[in-house]
Design a protein that fits this description.
The structure holds two protein chains of two kinds. Chain A is α/β, with parallel strands linked by helices. In chain A, strands 1, 2, 3, 4, 5 and 6 form a six-stranded mixed β-sheet that branches. In chain A, 31% of the residues are buried. By secondary structure, chain B is α/β, with parallel strands linked by helices. In chain B, 32% of the residues lie in helices and 18% in strands. Chain B is built from 21 helices and 23 strands. In chain B, strand 3, helix 6 and strand 4 form a beta-alpha-beta unit. The chains are: A alpha/beta, B alpha/beta. At the A-B interface, helix 1, helix 2 and helix 3 of A face helix 13 and helix 14 of B. Chain B: Part of a SCF (SKP1-cullin-F-box) protein ligase complex. May interact with auxin and auxin-responsive proteins. Chain B: Pfam families: F-box_5, LRR_6, Transp_inhibit.
């Protein structure tokens, strides 16, 4: 992937499972940086959950004693504590770099020998991926059970799978979008009756 | 001393190093008070609402340099709502009426208008230095007024201000007769400037020692300027982002070669790695380097450059440098005194390429380190203990672990012991910011050991009121205490109310303080302004056991001789 070029300077991966923290798409998360802890208000489960280090009971205890967290907007703008000038300079820089990057993957529909190509960085989540693919292939598609439940009565003929970096075929929709972007290699639209 | 003529006493006072000492001598007797006040040249006002501007001007009519600070420090992180206050106009107007000999004005975190700048420019005939830091409310038209009318201007230093751009005209407003510039910093100006005007201005400023350009200035202009300024000591580059042609590179290298006095470099806005090798020749003479606006440089680019900077004393860099880059810094920059490592991709907390290992490496290699600001994604007690032992000379230690409340990465314990080691070993510590998972114990350590501490910043830390009480009791020299998102309530607030009179200010936001507690404080201490800032009502529904009283969103307490201020917006209640 083109985006991997950014990672060349690093020689260690983070403690969490992410291996491309400088991935431009990760910066697009409108969610900020709040770790998920079970006892905090849902207001703060903002999108991507990256932290894997909050399993200890001591951290949960401390979390319980912290008073109600600030509102979403305050968290976004007031943490980490850097000056607005630096914040906007880095944000502008990040969006400049993001615009220059693409993530094209091949998309195949079962039964069709000719595939399509799609720049995933132009999309902002699974919903827009679904919409885009439904338009491209002119068929209802779904992915992961959760989303089927959200749209009752719509029994799609196809569902979405992808090949990850290990070569395994997985169902689309189980992992957060940004994590998906770092592992997807190809997308395949499979017929539901096969599953 | 009453036998000495006033001039002699005044002369003796001139040896006093700072305002604090001058304040003390003025208390001795009326004669000394009078002599001191009429001979005071430099006045520092740490909180613009602590005293009325008219009173300052009346007392010190002969002041030449005035510094005023406005909003509390947490305003830098968007915690203070807009329109809170901190207006410069009353100060400039008062000085215009009572102190026309003013030569220098420094303002930080204040709201400055174009009208005020124009008044400033036209009123003070000997005005020569304007330094604005983190201010807002003015445009380039205000700068045009300064440029046009301040005939003796030596310093125009604009640091990180929010300036409305009204075109490049302002720079052309410096008259041809203006040849006195020593320092010009317009790095925060967003728009373009006229390259020709800039070059001509530089050409007629033989005393120019510090020049910081904004990102609109192209490489060729920079080269031309540098050819004219062989005595430049401090440079903020313009645009180095383009993949420019080879001739531009060569011209830039030649120009840098001429600047034998260059000691400090900054700018590097989105700098391309290709430009760096052409800067290597000056690296060996640099004492200051700020690369915090260059997220385009990766670890290897940065380390190649910094490994040449053997005389570096001050380094500001993004975390792209990574731990291995910090190891290079540790082995190359033995004179390092100040290090700041900023987060490059702050939309993602929990990951940054620097960890405790980078900081340990720095502490081993840079024994002179005294000032640190470090953003990282993890820390351990063991590392902090090692760092404290290696670098007992810290005067400023600010550690920000990106994920709030994160424990020791190895042991999952709170970081109390680590920070405890810091305050125990670093006996000269004056400023401290703590982060990560912290219990009341860390505050016990701070209260016990941090005797020289003047400023403490707390975020997402502590278990109970006892934490804050430890600090209020033990830190004898505390001047500024700022707390956010920590479980300190009315009991902590009211435990030691007399202490607030010895401090400049207290800030508490998203804590457990109620309005009742604030009212009690205000009634016990009439010489304090207790400002309750309640923007949002949503938070009030979330608290449970606080006597059913709504919690105060933000609290700002400061000592003052001016009484309640009359410019407060409607969301600020002054008790």
């Amino acid at each position: 992937m083109l985006v991997m070029a950014e990672c060349k300077g690093r020689d260690r991966s983070p403690s969490s499972s992410m291996d491309s923290s400088t991935h431009p798409a990760l910066s697009t998360a409108s969610a900020a940086c709040w770790p998920t802890r079970p006892d905090l208000s849902t207001d703060l489960r903002l999108g991507l959950s990256l932290s894997t280090s909050l399993s200890s009971s001591s951290s949960l205890q401390a979390a319980e004693s912290i008073p109600s967290m600030p509102s979403r907007n305050q968290v976004l703008l007031s943490w980490p504590p850097i000056k607005p000038f630096l914040r906007s300079a880095l944000a502008a820089s990040a969006s400049r770099r993001r615009r220059q990057q693409t993530l094209f993957v091949k998309v195949y529909m079962e039964g069709l020998p000719i595939g399509r190509k799609l720049d995933l960085l132009l999309l902002d989540g699974y919903d827009s991926l679904l919409v885009k693919l439904c338009n491209m292939f002119k068929t209802p598609i779904t992915y992961a059970d959760v989303y089927q439940q959200q749209v009752p009565g719509v029994k799609a003929a196809h569902f979405l799978t992808y090949e990850d970096q290990d070569g395994d075929w997985m169902m689309v929709g189980d992992v957060p979008w940004n994590l998906f972007l770092t592992s997807v290699k190809k997308i395949r639209i499979t017929r539901t009756d096969k599953c | 001393m009453t036998y000495f003529p006033e001039e002699v006493v005044e002369h003796i006072f001139s040896f006093l190093p700072g305002q604090h000492d001058r304040n003390t001598v003025s208390l001795v007797c009326k004669v000394w008070y009078e002599i001191e006040r009429l001979s005071r040249r430099t006045v520092f006002v740490g909180n613009c609402y602590a005293v009325r501007p008219e009173r300052v001007v009346l007392r010190f009519p002969n002041m030449r340099a005035l510094t005023v600070k406005g909003k509390p420090h947490f305003a830098d992180f968007n915690l203070v709502p807009p329109d809170w206050g901190g207006y410069a106009a009353p100060w400039i107007e008062a000085a215009a009426r009572g102190c026309v000999g003013l030569e220098e004005l420094r303002m930080k975190r204040m709201v400055v208008t174009d009208e005020s700048l124009e008044l400033l420019a036209k009123t003070f005939p000997r005005f020569r230095a304007l330094i604005l830091i983190s201010c807002e409310g003015f445009s380039t038209d205000g700068l045009a007024a300064i440029a046009s009318h301040c005939k003796l201007l030596r310093e125009l230093d604009l640091q990180e201000n929010e300036v409305e751009d009204r075109g490049p005209r302002w720079l052309s407003c410096f008259p041809d007769s203006c040849t006195s510039l020593v320092s010009l910093n317009f790095a925060c100006i967003k728009g373009e400037v006229n390259a020709g005007s800039l070059e001509r201005l530089v050409a007629r400023s033989p005393n120019l020692r510090s020049l910081r350009l904004n990102r609109s200035v192209p490489v060729d202009t920079l080269s031309k300027i540098l050819m004219r300024t062989p005595n430049l000591e401090d440079l903020g580059t313009g645009n180095l982002a383009d993949d420019f042609q080879t001739e531009s590179y060569i011209r830039l290298a030649l120009a840098f070669d001429k600047c034998k006095m260059l000691r400090s470099l900054s700018g590097f806005w989105d700098a391309s790695p290709f430009c760096l090798p052409f800067i290597y020749p000056v690296c060996a003479q640099l004492t200051g380097l700020n690369l915090s606006y260059a997220p385009t440089l990766d670890s290897s680019d940065l380390t190649k450059m910094i490994s040449h900077c053997v005389k570096l004393q001050r380094l500001w860099v993004l975390d792209c440098i990574a731990d291995k880059g910090l190891q290079v810094v540790a082995s190359s920059c033995k004179d390092l005194q100040e290090l700041r490592v900023f987060p490059s991709d702050f939309y993602i907390a929990g990951y940054s390429p620097v960890t405790e290992e980078g900081l340990v490496a720095i502490s081993l290699g840079c024994q002179k380190l005294s000032s640190l600001l470090y953003f990282c994604h993890q820390m351990t007690n063991a590392a902090l203990i090692t760092i404290a032992k290696n670098c007992p000379n810290f005067t400023r230690f600010r550690l920000c672990i990106l994920e709030p409340g994160k424990p020791d990465a190895m042991t999952n314990q709170p970081l109390d012991e680590g920070f405890g080691a810091i305050v125990r070993e670093c006996k000269g510590l004056r400023r401290l910011s703590i982060s990560g998972l912290l219990t009341d114990k860390v505050f016990m350590y701070i209260g016990t050991y941090a005797k020289e501490l003047e400023m403490l910043s707390i975020a997402f830390a502590g278990d109970s009121d006892a934490g804050m009480m430890h600090v209020m009791k033990g830190c004898k020299n505390l001047r500024k205490l700022e707390i956010r998102d920590s479980p300190f309530g009315d009991a902590a607030l009211l435990e030691n109310v007399a202490k607030y009179e010895t401090m400049r200010s207290l800030w508490m936001s998203s804590c457990n303080v109620t309005e009742k507690g604030c009212q009690v404080l205000a009634s016990k201490m009439p010489m304090l302004n207790v400002e309750v800032i309640n923007e949002l009502d949503e938070n009030n529904e979330m608290d449970e056991n606080h006597g059913g009283l709504p919690k105060v969103d933000k609290l700002y307490v400061y000592r003052t001789t001016a009484g309640g201020r009359d410019d407060a917006p409607n969301f600020v209640k002054i008790l």
